[in-house]
Amino acid sequence: MSKGRYILLAVVCGAVAFALGVIIGWFSRSGLTAEDRAALNKYLASIEDADETIRDHILETIDAQRIRENLRQLSQKPHMAGTPPDLEMAELLRRNWLENGLDEVRLVPYDVLLSYPPLGREGPNNTAVTVDGADPAREYEDTRTLHIEPEYQDDPDAVQFFNAYSPAGHPVGELVFANYGRLEDFDYLRAVGINCTGKIVLMKYRSGGRGQKAKNAASAGAIGAILYPEPADTNEPGGKVYPDGWNLPGTGTERGGALLETGDPLTPGYPATDYAYRLPKDKSNVFPPIPLQPIAYNDAQKYLSHLDGDIAPAGWNGSLPITYRLGPGFTGDWAGRKVALHVYTNTTIRRVYNVVGMIKGEVEPDRYVMLGNHYDSWVQGAIDDTSSTAISLELTRVFGGLVKDGTWRPRRSIVFVAWGAEEYGLLGSHEYVEQFTGLIKDRVVAYLNMDIGVGGNYTIFAGCSPSMIDVIYDTTKQVPDPDASLGKSVYETWSERDPADADADVKVPKLDWPRVGTDYIPFGLRVGTPLFTFAYVHDQTNYSPRAIYPSYHTAYDNMDLMERFVDPDFTVHRAMARISGELIRRLADSLVLPYDCRKYGPSLGAFLQATEQDFGSMLYDQGIGIDALRSAVYNYTAAAEGFHDRLQAIDRKDPLQIRSLNDQMVQVNTAFIDIHQPHYSNKHVLYSPSGCATNSSAAFPGIVRTMCDGPVDDEGWEEVKKEVAAIASTIQSAADVISDVDSILGPS
Amino acid sequence: MSKGRYILLAVVCGAVAFALGVIIGWFSRSGLTAEDRAALNKYLASIEDADETIRDHILETIDAQRIRENLRQLSQKPHMAGTPPDLEMAELLRRNWLENGLDEVRLVPYDVLLSYPPLGREGPNNTAVTVDGADPAREYEDTRTLHIEPEYQDDPDAVQFFNAYSPAGHPVGELVFANYGRLEDFDYLRAVGINCTGKIVLMKYRSGGRGQKAKNAASAGAIGAILYPEPADTNEPGGKVYPDGWNLPGTGTERGGALLETGDPLTPGYPATDYAYRLPKDKSNVFPPIPLQPIAYNDAQKYLSHLDGDIAPAGWNGSLPITYRLGPGFTGDWAGRKVALHVYTNTTIRRVYNVVGMIKGEVEPDRYVMLGNHYDSWVQGAIDDTSSTAISLELTRVFGGLVKDGTWRPRRSIVFVAWGAEEYGLLGSHEYVEQFTGLIKDRVVAYLNMDIGVGGNYTIFAGCSPSMIDVIYDTTKQVPDPDASLGKSVYETWSERDPADADADVKVPKLDWPRVGTDYIPFGLRVGTPLFTFAYVHDQTNYSPRAIYPSYHTAYDNMDLMERFVDPDFTVHRAMARISGELIRRLADSLVLPYDCRKYGPSLGAFLQATEQDFGSMLYDQGIGIDALRSAVYNYTAAAEGFHDRLQAIDRKDPLQIRSLNDQMVQVNTAFIDIHQPHYSNKHVLYSPSGCATNSSAAFPGIVRTMCDGPVDDEGWEEVKKEVAAIASTIQSAADVISDVDSILGPS
After folding, report:
1. In sequence order, what are the residues at sequence separation of 6 or more whose Cβ sits closer than 8 angstroms to the Cβ of residue B138?
2. Nearest-CA distance from B748 to chain A in Å?
3. pLDDT tens for each residue of A414-451
4. How far are the Cα atoms of A43, A363, B326, B552, B588 from residue A659, in angstroms, in the given order?
5. Whole-prediction pTM value?
6. What residues of chain A lie within 8 A of the CB of B273, using their CB?
7. Can you tell me the ipTM of this complex?
């Protein structure tokens, strides 16, 4: 061979050897087996944090015009709970949610006690001024022609004025004016010598539940009750009435449920399934005891203007152009006349449905983030609550779309709910929570609620569990204000327009535990689920009591009013949808739940302080110490600090540790439930209503309950003593949840 | 260059190229980063199943002689709850558990209402035959000298005979014999014309609680109650009495608590912490209403032999060599004499402690397997329950040793508990469960209980939650029978000696829900924790009612009796320790919990069948259908089958899926709790006692409750109707827990 050939040989040998070496080197390296690789990938997915790019997709995909079209379609017809259009709406939602890409949607039925006036306008409920009430022919000033907002009398499905669950009846009596119908109002009447026995009592809406007003009136001896929406409490000063503005005309009035407790009246504590035990109706004590009827403020003005008796105290006045008097009875032309109530309302068991749909989570499908709003309305309810239904329908499109096209699936499951029969007393949500208490407690990481979703365009009105405050603030910082010209975030305008502390240097938005009557209640008070409920409202700065929008529960709450006066370009709807959507995304997709359980501390501190301030000396006089409460609050605060430190040091590579701390952040909320609390459903030791008619102290409700409405007897003091210990024990058990795992060994 | 040199060059080139190739190949392969490797290792640990070699280590390390020495030390002195030796024992356990290697041990204090006769033997409780009871000098046949087992009168800490919580008092009356003091026994007396009003009633122990007997007697009009241990129910036929055998001598009697409910009487529902609310004693209705005193059977024989009246029915007879008569009053020499009760027993609040210790889990430290037994005893209590304390002390050594030397740490945490004041009415365990209800519900995967750990050497007497049956069977198959000469497993002898069905071809051991009164009760009935309680017992084949060992609650229950008659070589203790130890290991270390929730099916079926059989026609007559129950049971069964299939297909590489299914297997147990059940603590819809005095039907207790003891009024029928629905709803919610995650959407 030539020299060249030898060199070639050497080169070829070298090349072959090199290639061989590369191959051997490659394969001799101890790599992952395919199985290990698959396991590793699964593991890596289990500790993957949220993909933040999805946020922008969600915010950008939400479409104001689609929400507008949703609302137009959904608010076309009156859809009162238990009527055919109500069921049609449920079925439409199910269809659309499925089309939008949800994995599963079901209608969950309950057979609940509803209440209707004669439908089809027969024998309408009304009030009348009468000579003696015995003979209809001798009635004057009958409100019969005004039993429905005049502009809508042609819609046969618009229900006439009524208060649900009022007993039927035809009482006749002299009229007395009782302001808001609170206990203190009746105390005042008593003090000035006005006896309500046998009387019909006229009261303003607001400052208390409808049923409670009737109950207070009955306690004072009244035989019938009339409610009206005082324009001073309802309308924007100087505004025009509908259809020229959004204020309530004098011919409209607020419908509304009048139960004394929430949930199906016949199945307290248990779901109203087809096989549920139902209390005999006469064994239930949640109904208003006397007939109750709402009237328009024009009629109220007529009655009030003819009233006899002393001039009402200044605080009782409204803005009607009359002198407000107390009665009893009429004077002048109307002297001797009485007022007759004609209430034909009756109860009946009907089937209602919740619409419940799910996007199954990828990594933790058994943890749910739930968004709920009710879909029933007294009439068209474009604001209450079809605006929310229209928003959540758009959200199912946006989230469903991500899932359908395979772009994204959240870590946890997302559950959308449209509640039935909320207007009657939270029936759909109550029965659902009663049916699924255990699952909700163990699995729902957040319940988000919208009611009266877009009731105005000024700012947010919201409430939440303390540990959710930060994530809500952060989310609203991500969403631009509906008024793009401001160049601000929702958070910024919210801070300015409804600050927690108007005098603070750096303002933050007002965000306390919610105090409105909507579907979060069974979640919050029976289970303790972390929750958020919110709405966009109009400027209420100068209202007291806090106003609701003028057309509330009337036929004027409709698409026309929404488009002309509330949210013409639907940017408020879009902002609501963006807040809900981004909140859902964060809660469903974050590796570590964005909760801060230290935030219960200030609530506990405030309750403790209010207890000491409002009741400390009474307790002291009875020898009831609150050291146990003080020390439980201290222990909670310390435990929450310790937990927060552990959370900062969390091993983000350990899916079980993450799951465990996440669960603790949820369970610390549910730990404030004391199952021994006497109410069948309100068992939260911080936020249950105290049941006080007069005293609305912000102290621990279990303690307030006994002491609020007058002198306490020995048995009552025993009750208070017991509550102090029960609340302390419950707070301590919340502290135990977020303490180290050895807290089950007791204090060290 | 020569040819050889060229070849050499080619070879060198080839070698260098090869080496280079290997290196490049090695490094070009994408390997794991160090961080990935660490993550992978952590992940692999999280899905690692139990190391089965630990089983053998545990079984072999458990040392019978150490248990013997433990028992000798622990049973040296009487250690009644609330006395100084009781506290010493708690402190000794804490010290030893820590030395043995537990990570943390604490004493958890409660201030509970206890009850004592005068300590130090002053004014001993007794009964006396008296002429008129007015003048002690005229009392005859005083049992005063027999107020403590004679052989032990020199131990000043051995408490005299008493029933805890008997009111103090000195009633005098004619004697009546009332068999077991059940309602039907008093019905019989009434039927044969014996009026118990103003009488002292003598009753046998067994077939009912001590307090309940006194309550039944009081309901019949009696003013005092005496209990005695009938030798026919207590002693082994033909056996010798202690110290020549283990039978009860005629001079001993059973002490015992007489509360009508379990748990601290003054703090129902809440833990008896230092700040707890305590009911005024007169507001509590859990005390026996009349003085109650146990006597030895020698004394009972004397009384019975002088009784006047008719001969007792055959079923009432015992084995005393007399004719059992009913009374009232005495005859012959004793004619006209009465019986006086002198009871000085009084209640007092004292601090008692649970000893709670932990080995922290490696992977899931927030899931606990708990082993508990009480450490208090009426006297020395070598059997009841120091045998269990001695066993658990040995287990802390074995498990603590593994942890101390770094051999092993379980996946989940192990919690050892020694309960205080069980003998008084499960006070320590009740208060603990009340304090930590939430943590127990969410985190305790199993509660294992030993009471009267070694009360015999024949076979196991046990009860458990249905889903634990298999793992208990499997475990006892791993443990050899204490009698090595048989060459059988515990499972085999247990199957033979106490089969579930004696006629079955293939026998399996009897293992139902437990029906004895011990510390599992609050776990089972208030929380629903999966549980197991067990003991080794003597041959009880021919006893009815089921017997307890003869020296129960006497000073004869001591180390000497244990060593000579019960477990001379401590192999029974070792077997108990091995079963507990292996069960703890399996439950704490298995990747997938060894539960089978299908096993609730037969229980549900049996309850349904018994309900139909025992009450079906009564329900039918009232128009109360049980279709809802039937369908709930069907749904549960189907859901459990579905769950089982999912469990078989579990992805053993997915730690979150495993955690989720494990949690469901625990939560399905707790889902049988209905918080609306009326009793403050017994809220399990399957296993709570019905509260019936006479009817012990195995049907659903909530249904039985109202119908058991006589005619039902309209309100009662409403109650029954309500319960049918409540139970159906609760069973359905258990089915929902083990259904797919979309069960929260309601039925599809």
Report:
1. B130, B131, B132
2. 7
3. 999 999 999 999 999 999 999 999 999 999 999 999 99
4. 14, 11, 67, 48, 19
5. 0.94
6. 628, 725, 729
7. 0.92
